[in-house]
């Protein structure tokens, strides 16, 4: 897995952080997913690092905050909705002025808005069980991974019903600018 500071292994990371910062500065609609979320946080002055609680893996409830109610992008996401998370790193400190739209019960940001129209989501609205199974196959064996993949597969309809309208809302927003 790639990490925000792996510039020596992935020389495209600095340019990606610069691009995200420019998108925020120029109010370009942006949706940053997982590593993208972490890069957005780092690019805008926040801090990212290893999750002290360990890897977030599998289906997790998206803990919508009060602020999410005013976000058009999250209008279709209902309380109790779940999403796929598969990450080692998290936002440890958010950039100044960031709006937290969802967080875990422990306070780990799951969704944020930076500036007027740059959103970061730590979860994966775009994946299915087959994609997650491929990720798991690329990692060292991890306890609980087969069960997490099975749960994701069983929740396919729920995930599509939740995250397809979210993606459509972002697409419509991006197309209108």
Structure summary:
With 177 residues, the protein is of the alpha+beta class. 35% of the residues lie in helices and 23% in strands.
How would you characterize the overall build of this protein?
The protein has 177 residues and is of the alpha+beta class. The chain has a single domain, classed as Class I glutamine amidotransferase (GATase) domain (Rossmann fold). Helices cover 35% and strands 23% of the residues. It is built from five helices and eight strands; from the N terminus they run H-E-H-E-E-E-E-E-E-E-H-H-H. The protein has a four-stranded mixed sheet, covered by helices on one side. A two-stranded antiparallel ribbon has the order 2-5. Strands 3-4 form a two-stranded antiparallel ribbon.
Strand ordering within the main sheet = 1-8-7-6
In the CATH scheme, the class would be: Alpha Beta
The main pleated sheet reads as: 4 strands, mixed
CATH architecture: 3-Layer(aba) Sandwich
The number of helical segments is 5
What name goes with the CATH superfamily? Class I glutamine amidotransferase (GATase) domain
